[in-house]
Fold these 2 entries.
Entry 1:
Amino acid sequence: MFKKPAHETISQRMKLIFSDQDERIIEHSPAPVEQILFEVGINPLEVIVSRNGNLISEDTVVGSEDAIRIIRIAHGG
Amino acid sequence: MYQRQSGHHLCETHFIEDIQRRVANTIKTRRMIVPEDRVAVALSGGKDSTALLLLLWQLLPTGQDIRLIAITIDEGISGYRDDTIRSAEQLTSRLGIEHHCISFTDLFGDTLDTFLKGRETQACSICGILRKKALVIAAQRAGATKLATGHNLDDEAQSVLMNVFRGDLPRLCRNSGVDSSGKFIPRIKPLSLISEKEIAVYLMLQNEWNELPECPYTRYALRREIRALLSGFEYKHPGTMLHLIESKKKIERYCAGSVLPASLGSCTMCGDPCSGDLCQVCLLRQTFGH
């Protein structure tokens, strides 16, 4: 589904921060948020994502030393 | 922000304006709110009802004597409801909106936690029945002419699929329009065409997003499984949720008058409108031995 452009092959460290404050460091070349979520098994429709405190859209490319916060949209009124 | 259904990228201002325009359009085309209405918003303090109250507060025209009030139901769910009630109180206080809170203990004699001991797997069905009744009572006490709930596109599509999976044709055929034939306070769902994710983004952009706990009983809910299933389909096949809603409307039209009784009767115990001899609340009371 996602094809990596040829120039994006250098792996970089990226920090994923989840709603339960769990953190995970991954090695990944720069890629759209949607691809990162897909690879860690998260449906992009079920979360919102911010980088350094700013909301970002699913097609934003993230990479080097970025801290990505993944906020689960909780259900239940 | 990327808007999946249109394929557009919108800046913060235009994203908010787009949500406001679509909600206003839903209200207008379905004649959900008319001059001199007193609209009770079912405000749990969670994301959907928070967004609903905020949007109605932003959108309702002044000078037409339309009043907004908020009603909150405290079911008595330990470790969950206190946080959302606090959030609801802070929001209504900030917006200057009249707020009424009513509890299951006041209305039914005990907390939901107590009612559910040994019946946890039926949590959402039991809570749903009691909460609907509590909302109606609270809305009546507040003198409301409309009861607005924060059901979003995902909720509505999930309900259609759940009713299909259960083979529950009467519920599938139930008219989702505003008309109540004078039997009860009409319910309106102004967010029914806005996705859950759009609501979350809207709140985030309005600085009104609160990360609140999830109801501890959702782990028992069929809806949770349907939600994951449907959200997977929506991701792979955008438009799935809207197609489900459109199917329901078609089924409603095809089944009009043939599945549901033409007019509602009254519960033989409490007198509330219902389709059988007893309403669902009185059936539950019998089960609980109350």
Note: Chain A has a mean pLDDT of 82.
Entry 2:
Amino acid sequence: MYAFSFKRAASIEEAAALFKGGDDPQYLAGGQTLIPTLKQRLAAPSDLIEINRIEGLKGIGEEEGAIVIGAGVTHAEVAASDLVRARLPGLAALAGEIGDPQVRHRGTLGGSVANNDPAADYPAGVLALDAEIRTAQRSIPADDYFQGMFETALEEGELITSVAFKVPEKSAYAKFPNPASRYAMVGVYVAKFADGVRVAVTGAGPGVFRVPEIEAALSKDFTEAALAGISVSAEGLNSDLHGSADYRAHLVGVMARRAVAS
Amino acid sequence: MTKVTLTVNGQTVEKDIADNRLLVELLREDVGLTGTHVGCDTSQCGACVVHVNGKAVKSCTMLALEAEGAEVVTIEGLAKEGALHPVQEAFRDHHGLQCGFCTPGMIMSSVDIIRRNPELDEQMVRAELEGNICRCTGYQGIVKAVLAAADVLKKEAV
């Protein structure tokens, strides 16, 4: 790791002030992506601002029918939350499948959503559940938030405070993990709302995306059979040593069917 | 250099460290507790697992300064008054190790797994051990040991 200066923020305001005062600062949440990145010397921030102790980023609650999860809530806490398990069992299951138990004890919702790794699980849940990403300044709809590989609508220094998830009639996440890394080769989150179905895919492309043809078919008929004739275009999907774009496109259909079946 | 104060196996530790010191470096090199191992150093293998405030974490993927004020327990902190912890005992009884390199992390993870899951079966143990890798492929014995230790701890709790 390159040298950096470690700063500890006790509040959202203090975190923002520390960020403004830094040369090339970066927030540190659970660190499960950032610390490995620093160890590989792929990043060299001047200041790391620890936001894990900020009370304002913790907590899971219900607000006007939405489930609001603090950005600092860990994957393990989401997976174990009675409220999330009761209202958003698909999201609780997704959180319980991220990384491994030790990573889930540190990694946070806000960290995952801010990083927007193209193979991360949370972006699929956030996008399919039509969530709002709340920052200290504003609220961003998921459809506007994710902007491709590691790119988001966040401004420099803008800190995610919570994510508000809409509660669907039902939803589920199906992931095909890479057999070695366990990252999603393809992960599909299907959410059935009263006014239609939203389907979001992670792992397959340069960033999380929705699949209009699957959404339309499932909105008409929410069954596995409704997806029988649908094929997803491989154009723009990832092609690498783990699998071709065609293979990933095929997996999108398979994982969507598994999500619907579950 | 920044001062860090934390509790390691019940003892207060105070050190002046570089801001980019990892928790595992603090434990091994500054405190001298070399039971916690560094295997892959990329947060995959789990040889470095310790408990921070009661939760199993990978100490190679946490800064020492993030543990400010925390209670850390390492493999050296499990045995009490010379008697092995039931999970350590079970690993010995069920041949849950071959070369032993992964064992400290396996045991720290297993203690955490048993604590979080009052009812365990083989499939759950295998899934929960996802973050720990044994290169001797000794998983059969490890899984047996975790299940046996879970039984012992359950009886002790009654």
Note: Residues 86-157 of chain B form a domain with the DNA polymerase; domain 1 fold (CATH 1.10.150.120).
